[in-house]
Amino acid sequence: MSCTDKKARLAERQTQWQGMVDKALSRFPERKEVFTTTSGIEMKRLFGPADVDAVDYLEDVGFPGEFPFTRGVQPTMYRGRFWTMRQYAGFGSARQTNERYRYLLGQGQTGLSVAFDLPTQIGYDSDMELADGEVGKVGVAIDSLADMEILFDQIALDQVSTSMTINAPAAVLLAMYIAVAEKQGVSSDKLRGTIQNDVLKEYFARGTYIFPPQPSMKIITDIFSYCKDNLPNWNTISISGYHIREAGSSAVQEVAFTLADGLAYVGAAIKSGLDVDDFAKRLSFFFNVHNNFLEEVAKFRAARRLWARLMKERFGAKKAASMMMRFHTQTAGCSLTAQQPDNNVVRVTMQALAAVLGGTNSLHTNSRDEALCLPTEDSVRIALRTQQIIAHESGVADTIDPLAGSYMVESMTSEIEAKALAYIKKIDDLGGVVKAIEAGFMQQEIGDSAYAYQKSVETGDQVIVGVNKFTVQEAPPTNLLRIKQEMEIEQRKSLAAVKAGRDAAAVSNSLKTLRQVAESGDNLMPAIVAAVKTYATLGEVCGVLREVFGEYIES
Amino acid sequence: MEKKIKVLIAKPGLDGHDRGAKVVSRALRDAGMEVIYTGIRQTPEQIVATAIQEDVDSIGLSCLSGAHNKLFPKVVNLLREKGAGDVLVFGGGIIPDEDIQGLKDAGIAEIFLPGASTETTIAFIKEHVK
Amino acid sequence: MEDLVDGLLSGKVRSLAKAITVVENDRPGKRELLTRIYPKTGNAYLLGITGPPGAGKSTLTDKVIASLRRQGKTVGVIAVDPSSPFSGGAILGDRIRMQQHALDEGVFIRSMATRSHLGGLAKNTVDVIHLLDAAGKDVIIVETVGVGQDEVDIVRIAQTTVVVMVPGLGDSVQIAKAGVMEIADVFAINKADRDGADKLYSEIRAMLDMVKGTIKPEVFRTVAVDDVGIEELVQGIFAHGARVEASGLIEKKRAQKAESELRAYIVDNIMERSTGLAVYDEVVKRVAAKEITPMDGVEALFAGLGMTNKES
């Protein structure tokens, strides 16, 4: 049968089926008139061959490990090695967090992921006024190298890979990590891990910025350049859509704004004199995984394909590794409910499965109690077990990209890619990400999506089980993990002890040198490494940089 | 002319998660209120000075970092010191149940937890602002 | 009311804030309040800052405040943002960029929504300016988008009006359309580090060359986020004020100012008298039905209000 005949028959049968549908509809209307995803993409009643007419297998899908990497970045994917199971953790003091890390490693976790408290993330020491009430609350408090030494006590830094969620002061925390490794006798070329180091999204989605965009971009490219020579196995940035999604964006906006940030970093690095094929392989990404299962799977596939194409077309990348999007995924914190918290285990399972079917390279699964407080050890274990069950029991990891070829998934992948690209072009027209941030473009778009979502929940259009439907009377939850107020006082005491015990002249000299380097425009990294080794505090180092670079004011 | 209800939505502390604050701001605007939004990382002192200059009827505080026990009461105390103890203060964020009574005793009129509808917040303000 | 006036005149922040609320909401006692403080007004330097959305007015205002404070001047700021035409509510977010001054007792910032009623914005703003003036602020800054007659009226009252422009927003079209040439005393090309700043500069200069007679506005370049060009701008503002003072134009400016102020009150007064009256609704209905022209409508309205119109 010729191709045209086949098409004609298909169309005929489709019409017949439509007749059946119409008849069914006249008796039983559907639940909604139109079904859409979070990105406003229509979920059709049925996807079929016509929906993937424009998809060319070799051009658009291809083979795993090959451009455009739609099916994954490695040729064997999880058949060789599972994704890295990496639970984000950190709270209270360095000592407490160190205990949690050693527990997690003992339970079969394969990488560490450090959560810092807010003063650390904004470059303040625990004894500063603005840190009042925040010390150790959302992560571990790190004031100086002394805390970092305790944090990684009895953890061999050449044996683990460590991810640090740190942005504006990323250079300082990386410097401390290098210094701790040196004390352990581990040279920096052996270090594996990631710093988030993605300041752009801080301006429009997460809020832990310090400096204005220009000097921030300069610090980031300094890190790229330093790591290229000294930490060849370090992921110098984790370009993050996670927080963009948490701030309320749609799946398409998450992809678009993350990749737009990525383009800005690559552009800045090239402008600073680096060759794209020298640094691009160390770029990594970080996405959210939300509830709409099929849209999420398609999102990951679309993001990989779009990034590969952009790297090739816009920057002339030549090496496959420069076009390959490797990413970490975390299940959506904003999807967790404080009501009937055990239901969150189910949500997280579904989200984790979508991330795995989308080909994630590493994964964090949230704990059921995180809408209430910091996760308890029991909750963290269930979250980790969820990943292990998917890996070892579900069978989905035994074949690569099993949803490829689904009419629906391929169609949705193309649609997300096209819509994200349209956003990126809009940002280009505004003069790039920094100008778009100044104009409030992303903030407005995300705000619109967040508000629309809230309204759909309040009208009941979007059902959240246990929140606006299937609710029950609950007793207040018990057994929550709290950070005691004394912790803040203890942390201040130990900071005071560090300050009293260090060589004050060495500290002040190192800070003086740092200031000179900052003013001269030379690479900041060596001076920061030297400063933290004298036990100059995070607040002191960032203080010098604040004076030289100024501070960003929200727009 | 009908008096407009004026509300200050403020984020004390260091956390940058302003999704909730912004959604509530929009919802209050759509309910006909005038909302002053001052952005993230505001100190209690800044919040109170702003509330007084703007002569707001109510202040909504949003905090997701866990520092609420320290920051929320500080706002109420400063208002009282400055003779503006009549301003209705409410709060929202990730706040454990066991903290709520303490916050209410400190003068925070109501706490809205994750999952609370904006309708509830609007109704609360309309009922309690004189 | 007595307490409020005394408090305001002695510099109490809360009294000033409460007085503004009385005025802004047309609360009872408003007339008395304004009458009491009126003799104490006339000392402040009134500065208008206007320009299209996205020009960076709030950031510029923030830096101008800082500069004025360095000179030891106290500052009052009125930041005007639009109300939602649907709900009547508003999100007033200009302050975000000025929060570094929140704890400075020499700075008082008040956000105002345009609200919906005609003429009301201009009149209410004038009243608030009087209150800030009586409270002893050396400089009062009114920041508005500058769209519509109401807002143009506000900036006309100012001693000096700064029009903020930014490269890449349609430039010359933007200048012509906004009709800002006539209200600008000083131009600030903000975000002057962007492409197109030179082009915008020469376009403004070229247009100014066509204006005859009056004092030619100076054009400044600023990058407000980086605090660049602000001192020069502030000097230029006061230099403009001094030139007006020195020239024979001061009388004209004063008259213009009085006229604008008066017009604000006239429009509001008539609207206030008319709104809600049967005769007003009737006239609206007839104009809508195209039975009469709006011109005839005014006459019918005035007749209905018992006012004589100029024809009779």
Give the termini separation of chain B: 16 Å
- Unreliable spans of chain A: none
Determine the CATH topology of chain A.
TIM Barrel
Strand content of chain A: 5-15%
Question: What would you say this structure looks like, in words?
Answer:
The complex is a heterotrimer of chains A (555), B (130) and C (312). Chain A has 555 residues and is α/β, with parallel strands linked by helices. Chain A has a single domain, classed as TIM Barrel. Chain A has helices at residues 3-27, 57-61, 94-106, 118-121, 145-151, 170-184, 200-206, 213-230, 242-246, 251-271, 276-279, 293-315, 320-323, 343-357, 377-393, 407-429, 433-438, 441-458, 485-501, 504-520, 525-533, 538-549; strands at residues 84-85, 88-89, 112-115, 161-165, 192-195, 234-235, 237-240, 283-289, 327-331, 362-364. Chain B has 130 residues and is of the alpha/beta class. Chain B has a single domain, classed as Rossmann fold (3-Layer(aba) Sandwich). Chain B is built from five helices and five strands, in the order βαβαβαβαβα. In chain B, strand 4, helix 4 and strand 5 form a beta-alpha-beta unit. In chain B, helix 1 (19-30) packs across helix 5 (118-128) and helix 2 packs across helix 3 (68-81). Chain B starts with 5 loop residues before the first strand and ends with a helix. Chain C has two domains: 1-40; 41-249, Rossmann fold (3-Layer(aba) Sandwich). Helix content of chain C is 50%, strand content 14%. The longest helix of chain C has 26 residues, at 249-274. Strand 2 of chain B pairs parallel with strand 3 of chain C.
